[in-house]
Write a structure and sequence with these properties.
Length: 648
RNA sequence: GCUGCUGUAGCUCAGUGGUAGAGCACUCCCUUGGUAAGGGAGAGGUCGACAGUUCAAUCCUGUCCAGCAGCACCA
């Protein structure tokens, strides 16, 4: 038998027989290590203790101290343990797949009846039994025919299909947790007892399609989360509670920002407080766009189908459009219109009106465009995913040669805005050519390179999303990470040579001939609705002062102070601060509590002493201590604070 | 759109086959109180909509609408 050389993390190496397993290697180092071992890392690959090593390699034996492999194994083994528990309780349930995911795992089952929350408790209890039984994990590589026969005999038709989908040349690996068997890539732990019994929890059950295919029947997916110990699990639970407190739907109600109701699903009724945020944000964006060389336009909501046919939306996007039929008097047939789902075709109409010269390019045409899309009911989510929304949309009409410079200019523009709005964690994704596409490979090469180069020129790295571009061109996506680590796609830039072609947009070049411009679809916030939702959650409702809908409440402590309260409110309003009086017959404690819960950044309390001295007692949101300031000083401070960041 | 769950007062929620209740909010009265809930009284609901079963439906059944979780979707 040939010898191989294994190199350990400390740089030492040892000779072993070829085909040695990490379990044997660990045993050769120390029996205690062999016991503690959970897996190995062989040449950077996560390796099961039972898998043979055939050639020279770098090897590290992993234990529960190694977070990444430990969590991966715990979660993956729990997926199997859960599936085993389910099949032990309900033997007729068919298993499908169960990968790890986020902080845990899920497993999809085919079962007639729905799993109930009580079932989850029963499954959890059974899982703990399995863990305590410390059943050994075994693995073998099987032939395709044997695996298929095995699953056919058991009636596990989903597994048969999965085996068939494994590419030629790849191992078909079978795993056993005790007597329970599953098809799995691995790696896995040594035995079920290595899973911490108190670090996991089944969270919920929901429907999911087999292999994500919506044309197939729906399975039931049970989700779980798992950590190395009870403490980490508790920490996760606490974080989830924090996230729930920030939910924009909850805060929107508490802060009286907006509401939605069933007569207008997916559309927002903005209340005065919410609309204040919206208009302040819009004012800010309008100033930014003006400075960056955009012109602003406004275009119709209800547009005849002829334009949508010309643009291609009628063919490709119709099921997402609100169709409006108008029965005009004496008309032979109804006029068919659609609410615009996007602004681009209308912007081309503006571009086409009057002959454009190369001197007009790049032409940056912006609109706070109200769009309506008939989104699938299941996609709606608060004000984040709606059917009626306003984009901070713009289309840059330019030449091929200008794409890169315009893209860089846009990235700089967007970066400045995100910084002003308090977002410093964001990344860029570049989506490249999809399988179904128009245009030559040379042109895709050129445009993809232009976008990538523009990112680098602006000083940003980007991640490539292979094949995720639109059929007509590649795109950049700008993804924000919020305060609790969630990602949100907001900004976007898409290169589109297709629509100018379809709608026959032209400009007169230097040579006197007609040429086709390219369009860059771009947005910074995405939609006001969504972005405001993100702002609310990012700041947990405590928006930056200049965006806070209610900025100051001036509260009387005794009714004798009412006159001065009004005077303070007027002085603040005179400098543009959103101030209101609270002269109600309530104690100051009551008022403080109510306005603090309402996330008002400043409460100015006024009693007899303040009236006497013409001062205010200042309480800032989130602080217990108060300070006394003169009327002039507080007015000056708040006047500065309410100034948007770009005007300071 | 699909699977499952939910829909009772402005909000958060309890409850029953014989047409409903709490706390907070609201209105009024008492209280003028110094930094996160002072006290009392009052008003407020076609129990999501429409059918069906029943002597009787908010409760049981069906359909629809909306919301929630996830999946699918998101040029």
């Amino acid at each position: 038998m040939s010898q191989i050389s294994l190199t350990f993390p400390d740089g030492n190496s040892r000779e072993y027989d070829a085909g040695v397993t990490p379990a044997q290697v660990a045993e050769s180092i120390a029996p205690s290590l062999a016991k503690k071992a959970i897996s190995a890392t062989v040449n950077g690959e996560h390796w099961d203790l039972q898998w043979p090593i055939d050639g020279d390699a770098k090897i590290a034996i992993n234990t529960m101290q190694d977070d990444e492999p430990a969590l991966e194994l715990i979660r993956h083994d729990l997926a199997h343990i859960m599936a085993r528990a389910v099949q032990e309780i309900w033997p007729d349930v068919k298993v499908t797949i169960g990968p790890i995911r986020d902080n845990g795992w899920f497993y999809d089952f085919d079962r007639e009846e729905a799993f109930t929350p009580e079932d989850l408790g029963q499954i959890e209890a059974k899982m703990k039994e399995i863990i305590n039984a410390r059943d050994a994990v075994k693995t073998e590589v099987w032939s395709r025919d044997d695996a298929i026969k095995f699953y056919e005999d058991r009636g596990e038709n989903y597994k048969v299909e999965l085996v068939n989908r494994i590419p030629e040349g790849e191992d078909i690996r079978m795993y056993w947790h005790g007597d329970w068997q599953d098809l799995c890539r691995g790696p896995h732990l040594q035995h079920t007892g290595q899973v911490p019994a108190d670090g996991f929890k089944l969270t919920h059950v929901a429907g999911a399609y087999f292999l994500g295919d919506s044309s197939r029947p729906m399975l039931q997916r049970i989700y779980g989360v798992a950590f190395k110990n009870r403490k980490d699990l508790k920490a996760w639970e606490t974080m989830m509670e924090e996230a729930a407190k920030r939910d924009h739907r909850k805060l929107g109600k508490e802060m009286d920002l907006f509401h939605m109701q069933e007569e207008a699903p997916g559309q927002v009724f903005w209340h005065p407080n919410g609309w204040t945020i919206y208009t302040k944000l819009q004012d800010y964006m309008r100033r930014q766009q003006y400075r960056d060389g955009y012109v602003e336009v406004n275009t119709p909501q209800v547009v005849n189908r002829k334009l949508w046919e010309a643009s291609g939306h009628w063919e490709n996007y119709q099921e997402n459009m609100f169709i409006v039929e108008v029965d005009e008097d004496h008309a032979r047939e109804k006029t068919v219109n659609a609410l615009k789902p996007m602004n681009c075709p209308c912007h081309v109409q503006v571009f086409n009106h009057g002959l454009k010269s190369y001197r007009d390019l790049p032409l940056r045409m912006a609109e706070f465009g109200s769009c309506n899309r008939y989104e699938p009911s299941g996609a709606l989510h608060g004000i984040m995913r709606v059917r009626g929304f306003t984009q901070d949309d713009a289309h840059i009409f330019c030449t091929d040669d200008q794409i890169e410079a315009e893209t860089k200019k846009f990235i700089d523009f967007l970066a400045g805005i995100y910084a002003d709005l308090g977002f410093h964690n964001w990344t860029i994704k570049l989506s490249t050519r999809p399988e179904k596409r128009v245009g030559s490979d040379e042109s895709w090469d050129r445009v993809e390179a232009a976008l990538g180069d523009a990112c680098k020129a602006a000083g940003y790295d980007y991640e490539i999303q292979e094949g995720e571009g639109a059929f007509y061109g590649p795109k950049l996506e700008f993804v924000l990470t919020d305060a609790i680590g969630r990602d949100w796609q907001c900004g976007t830039l898409q290169v589109d040579p297709n629509l100018p072609e379809r709608l026959d947009a032209v400009y007169i070049g230097q040579d006197g001939a007609k040429h086709r411009p390219v369009m860059l679809h771009r947005a910074v916030l995405g939609s006001f609705e969504r972005f405001i939702g993100i702002l609310i959650e990012e700041h947990a409702g405590k928006l930056p002062f200049w965006l806070a809908p209610r900025q100051v409440v001036v509260a009387s402590i005794v009714s004798d102070a009412d006159g001065f309260v009004d005077e303070v409110v007027e002085a603040l309003k005179a400098v543009g601060v959103r101030a209101e009086a609270d002269k109600r017959n309530e104690k100051i404690n009551y008022k403080i509590r109510e306005h603090s819960l309402g996330k008002v950044p400043f409460i100015l309390a006024i009693g007899a002493r303040e009236v006497e001295e013409r001062t205010v007692s200042v309480r800032r949101l989130g602080e217990q201590k108060t300070s006394t300031m003169s009327l002039d000083d507080i007015v000056a401070e708040l006047k500065l604070s309410t100034t948007p960041p770009d005007l300071r």
